[in-house]
Amino acid sequence: xxxxxxxxxxxxxxxxxxxxxxxxxxxxxxxxxxxxxxxxxxxxxxxxxxxxxxxxxxxxxxxxxxxxxxxxxxxxxxxxxxxxxxxxxxxxxxxxxx
Amino acid sequence: xxxxxxxxxxxxxxxxxxxxxxxxxxxxxxxxxxxxxxxxxxxxxxxxxxxxxxxxxxxxxxxxxxxxxxxxxxxxxxxxxxxxxxxxxxxxxxxxxxxxxxxxxxxxxxxxxxxxxxxxxxxxxxxxxxxxxxxxxxxxxxxxxxxxxxxxxxxxxxxxxxxxxxxxxxxxxxxxxxxxxxxxxxxxxxxxxxxxxxxxxxxxxxxxxxxxxxxxxxxxxxxxxxxxxxxxxxxxxxxxxxxxxxxxxxxxxxxxxxxxxxxxxxxxxxxxxxxxxxxxxxxxxxxxxxxxxxxxxx
Lengths: 98, 298
Ligand SMILES: [Zn+2]
Ligand SMILES: [Zn+2]
What we know:
The complex is a heterodimer.
Chain A: E1 2-3, E2 18-22, E3 25-29, H1 32-49, E4 56-62, E5 65-72, E6 75-83, E7 89-96
Parallel strand pairs in A: 1-4
Antiparallel strand pairs in A: 2-3, 4-5, 5-6, 6-7
Chain B: E1 2-3, E2 10-11, H1 16-28, H2 32-41, H3 49-60, H4 66-79, H5 86-91, H6 96-123, H7 127-142, H8 151-161, H9 166-171, H10 176-191, H11 194-202, H12 234-261, H13 265-294
Antiparallel strand pairs in B: 1-2
């Protein structure tokens, strides 16, 4: 999966040392909470779009509210999302990208 | 004593390098609380303790505004910076759901507030501080007769005006983040030096302080226009107006008391880290208000 961050897949931090497999790929996360959030995000995007894989993500924003542009094949989707402090999705609003 | 703002662990007085090492150690174990604190307050870039030290020195440095100025500065940075807290953004022109999320979670917050302020009263010998807390508790919880109804009562009336009766509000358990906040504040108020508890609790009242915009805040707690017109219920206006008017005086006075009684480096260090811990708990607690609000969305 192509990502815009070199650090933690969701927050770009390089602290911590959590490695987890997401979609068959070993990815770096700064903490368990970020790993849980990323997994939840990807699963939700796939459920929303019917894609079998997410090929690329571009994430911006901060912990209290982020935006993600996700791509798969010729399709793309823009998602505004946030999580509760426990790592559950609080907000997930998706838009098709023109 | 130098204290860890993520876990309140203790280190020798003035020893920020011990704190830097502790933060780097805990972060290398991927501890969420410490990683989060570093990410949000210092840097997302992993570094050595020696490189972290200057940033910590800068963060804890008290400038010309003294301790009250430092507290306001940290508070503004966290809640009223470039990306203000989403609850504050939602409260500018609040929906019914946002206000109901406020009612349900804040009821629990205010019950803890009474406990925290009572601990402060029980643990101080300063008459001024006791009188301040008595006045505060009456405003927030006790009330001063039918013309000056307590903030707690105004909160429940706001809920009723939005169609949720108080029996229902009182029957709902707090969300996890609210519960964590309550436990954290209870611990701070009962175990930390009372002056640190004073800063940790009353510093939070800065959230409604409309004067913060003069000190760099990017917005107010809510758009004052909603107090006019019919955008929100009469009872919601009464609740918000009360906080708007009361908390300016409260938070300012409390910070003056903190400045007066936080004597000596060890105490000042405790005040600073305890306050940082408290605003992190508050940050999550405000998210819990939104989370609860989402349950009331049509
Ligand atoms: Zn992360
Ligand atoms: Zn710690």
